[in-house]
Amino acid sequence: MRVRLTIEYDGTAYAGWQRQENALAVQQVVEEALRKLTGHEHTITGASRTDAGVHAFGQIAHFDAIGRIPAEKYAYALNTVLPDDVRIRASQEVPDDFHARFSAKGKWYRYCIYNDAHASAILRNTHAHVMYPLDIEAMRREAAYAVGTHDFNAFAASGSVVKDTVRTIYSVEVEKHEQKVEIHVKGNGFLYNMVRILAGTLIGVGTGKLEEGAIRRALETGSRLDLGMTAPARGLTLMEVYYNA
Q: What 3-state class would DSSP assign to 152?
């Protein structure tokens, strides 16, 4: 039986989603919880390899269950043995050909900023702090350049070995709620650090440190130097992964 999990986690204490040799990752924590629960070793596959410090509200993973626990009960059972910063929001049986990563059709990421002269104590793990005022309208104008199908080579992190850097961005929305600013990005796929580079560029334009049109120039030149900083990991959350109905 193949089981699909919807997973929420605070990534502050973890070295990202993917299991690693010398650091604790979310994948390892869930796999160890499955072993405690069932007495069997399971390998789970996630939709997104979120980086160290990145959070998720709707990470999707699948595994082939060994045992008699009904698929819908895994969420309840796993949450009794998982740490407080990892929660299974839902579990369900899926067809054997479902694959959390390769069946995905798109993703929605949210980047959160706390825009105030002083950083927030409460939001320090989930919001990047920007002390200078942000020009939200300038950020919205800049965000429009990213929408559409483009070669996002300039947005690839150094050392990236992905051959195809063409992606389609469906929407980039910038919202402001008092001191909180949110950047919502939806697309069919993303390069490593792509959303954080996009967020850093929008922050640069919003503070006036970058001239408007930086994204357009980078798409034309393919140069990472035309873009802003890579925004801190703590502001990023994987909100949802999309699949065909």
A: coil
Residues acting as catalytic residues? 51
Closest CA to 145 of 229, 213, 223, 192: 213
DSSP codes joined into one string, 74-96: HHHHHTTTS-TTEEEEEEEEE-T
Dist CA 120 CA 124 (whole Å): 6
Among 194, 175, 195, smallest CA distance to 183 is for 175
Spatial contact of 14 and 32, defined as CB atoms under 8 Å apart: no
Q: Encode pLDDT of 63-81 as tens digits.
A: 999 888 999 999 999 999 9
3-state secondary structure of 65: coil
Three-state SS string over 157-218 comes to: CCCCCCCCCEEEEEEEEEEEECCEEEEEEEECCCCCCHHHHHHHHHHHHHHCCCCCCHHHHH
Q: Residue 92 is encoded by which pair of tokens?
A: 């369900």
Give the model confidence (pLDDT) of 8-28 as tens digits: 999 999 999 999 989 999 999
With tokens 């006036």, the residue in question is: 208
Burial, 242: exposed, middle or buried (Cβ in 10 Å; 0-12, 13-18, 19+)? middle
**CA-based radius of gyration for the chain:** 19
**Residues 224, 36 contacting (CB under 8 angstroms):** no
